[in-house]
Amino acid sequence: MAQRQMQASRSNDLIISVNNKPAISALETMDQVAEIRPGSVIPVVVMRDDKQLTLQVTIQEYPATN
């Protein structure tokens, strides 16, 4: 299974949900993202500066490391 990545959040963002599913743990969230096809746009809800924001995030392939 290819790895996937999301790039939309800032370092201080707290991820609340990914693709309408609660972000229970980092590992579970990474597993959820890994199941999404690259190029898909999904909603990601974050807390930023005490405000809840919904971001539209494009899933990308994670570059392989050697």
TrEMBL record:
Keywords: Hydrolase, Protease. It comes from the Bacteria. Coiled coil: none annotated. The keyword Transmembrane helix does not apply. Its EC number is 3.4.21.-, 3.4.21.107. InterPro entries: PDZ, PDZ_sf. Signal peptide: none annotated. SUPFAM superfamilies: PDZ domain-like (SSF50156). Residues 10-58 form the PDZ domain. It is an enzyme of class 3 (hydrolase). One of its GO terms (molecular function) is endopeptidase activity. GO terms for biological process: proteolysis. The keyword Transferase does not apply. This is Protease. It comes from Escherichia coli. The lineage of its organism: Bacteria, Pseudomonadati, Pseudomonadota, Gammaproteobacteria, Enterobacterales. The gene is degS_1.
